[in-house]
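Table S2 (continued). Query chain:
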Amino acid sequence: MMPAMLRIFSATGHHLVMAGDTLPEDAVWIDLFNPTPEEERQVETALGFGVPTADEMAEIETSSRLYVDNGAIVMTATLATGLITETPETVPVSFVLGRNHLVTVRYAEIRSFDRYAAQLMRTPGQCSSAPLALMGLIDAIVDRLADGLEHVGREVDQISRAAFRRAEAKGRQQRRSNLALQALLTRLGAAQDGLSKARESVVSLTRALSFLQFAAPKDAGLSAQIKTQVRDLASLADQASFIGSNLTFLLDATLGLISIEQNAIFKIFSVASIVFLPPTLVAGIYGMNFVHMPELGWEFGYPMALAIMLAAAVLPYAIFRWRGWL
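Corresponding output:
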C-alpha cells in the first residue's frame, strides 16, 4: 500500500506532496489513494469543493454517486480490477471534475491509473487541463477493461476446447473423467465472476459518462470524446453479452457431459448385474436342499450346471453388444 501522500500531475510533471504541504499552483490531476481525513480536508480547503469519503463512495443510489457540488462534477463509478490476474473484484472510484482540477479518490490499487500516470510522466503535456486529464484517464480505464474482457474471452475459448475436444494419447482417445469436468465447472464459475464484474463496470462507467455529458460545461469540449468512450463501452457491453451467452451454453453442456459420464457408470453396473443375475439364479436353484433332484446323481450334472451358468452370462452380453448398447 502506498504511504500517506498526494500524487499530483500537471503539464510540468509529477509531484508527491506530503500531508500538510501546499498544493502546487499548476496542479491538474490530484490522485488520492487511500487518503487520510487530513489529506481530504487539505484538498477540499485548497480547491473549494468537497471530496467523497469512503462511506459516501459505498452508496449505491444514483443521486449519491452523480451530482454537482459547488460547481464541481462528482462521479463515483464501480471499476473492475484483477480481471487479467484472475482475482477479480469491484471497487468504487470517485472522479471530481472542477474547472481547473481533477481529483480522483480510490481505496484500491488500479492498474489503469498506474498506466496512465506512467504515460503522463513520459508526456506531461497530456495533463494540460482537468477535462483532458479526465478523458485520458477514462480512456486508459476503458482500454484496461477491454483487455480484461479479452482475457475472459480467451479463457472461455480454452474451456470450450477442453470440454469438447478429446485429447489423443497413444493413438487412443482418453475418456473424460468427472473430476476433469468438475474442474471445468470451477473455471466456468471464475470466468462468470470476472465477466459479471466487467459488465458492472461497463454499466457504471456508461452511466457516469452520460451524466458528465449532461453536466459538463459546453466550453469544456468534452462532447466528442464522451461520445467516443460511450461507443467503446457499448461495444464492450456487446462483447460481454456474447461471452455471457457462450458461458451459459458451456455451463449447460458441461453439466450434460457430467450427466452422460455418470449415466455411463450406472450403465456398467446395470449390465454387470444383468450378466450375473442368470448364473446366480441357476446356482440358487441347484443349491436347494430337496431330496428328489435327478441332476445330483447324474455324472455330468455339475458340468451341465456350469455350462448353463456360463451361457446365461454370455448370452445377455452378446445381445447387448449386438444391439449396440455397449
